[in-house]
Amino acid sequence: MFELHDFSRSSAAYRVRIALAYKGVDHQRVGVDLVRGEQHEADFRSLNPQGLVPVYSDETLHLSQSLAILEYLEERYPQPPLLPASREGRARARQLASLVACDVHPLNGFRVHVYLRDALGVDMRRRRAWFLHWLAEGFDAIELWLAAQGNPPRFCVGDAVSLADVCLVPQVEVARRNGLDVDDYPRIAAIERACMALPAFRDTHPDVIGAP
Ligand SMILES: N[C@@H](CCC(=O)N[C@@H](CS)C(=O)NCC(=O)O)C(=O)O
């Protein structure tokens, strides 16, 4: 059985937890407490020199980067699929997943917050302004992207859950936890509601997993 090195409040790790639960894949969860700094310990760095969760690990493969892990799981456990049947649908799902994972999430990561605070001496009010600015910019773009899809889809791409939802919902959780009013984004909020009606999203939520 493989391991998932995970931290409950990591949105990147929450993506992988959702995919594993959606596909019903048995695995061993290993908590890495980011607040206590366990990501900097030598044992964990030997799995991922970047010191970031999530990490997938089995006898022969140590894989970091949630998008790479998600694609790997999709190939290894294709049912139920998290990529649409059509080429266009798959491209759109990957587009939105990348928007969240590559352009929104990295600006607001824990290490960014720590660097702003400790190395640059940015106070909490201005760190919060930074955080909300980049979140809102990303959410504005996602809401417009969803509007451009035509009839409101049930999920990000059509009527089935895809990698796009798997990436979006954890980012919404981060936004809510940090005081962004997600109701200002009706399409995002509706998709989040549709996803949270599913056990794969609900049972892997940070509040359900508990710390670390
Ligand atoms: N691009 C990476 C991002 C991973 C990432 O930033 N993980 C955060 C938690 S969400 C982390 O481990 N942070 C540790 C730290 O900031 O020290 C991925 O998608 O897996």
Characterise the protein shown here.
This protein is α+β, with helices and mostly antiparallel strands. It has two domains: about 5-80, Glutaredoxin, CATH 3.40.30.10; about 85-200, Glutathione S-transferase Yfyf (Class Pi), Chain A, domain 2 (Up-down Bundle), CATH 1.20.1050.10. Helix content is about 55%, strand content about 5%. The model has no long low-confidence stretch (mean pLDDT about 95). Bound molecules: glutathione. Glutathione (GSH) binds near residues 12, 54, 65, 67 and 101.
Instruction: Give the termini separation.
Output: 21 Å
What percentage of residues falls in helices of 4 or more residues?
40-55%
What is the rounded Rg? Answer: 17 Å
- Give the bound compounds: glutathione
Number of domains: 2
In CATH, the topology of the largest domain is named Glutathione S-transferase Yfyf (Class Pi), Chain A, domain 2
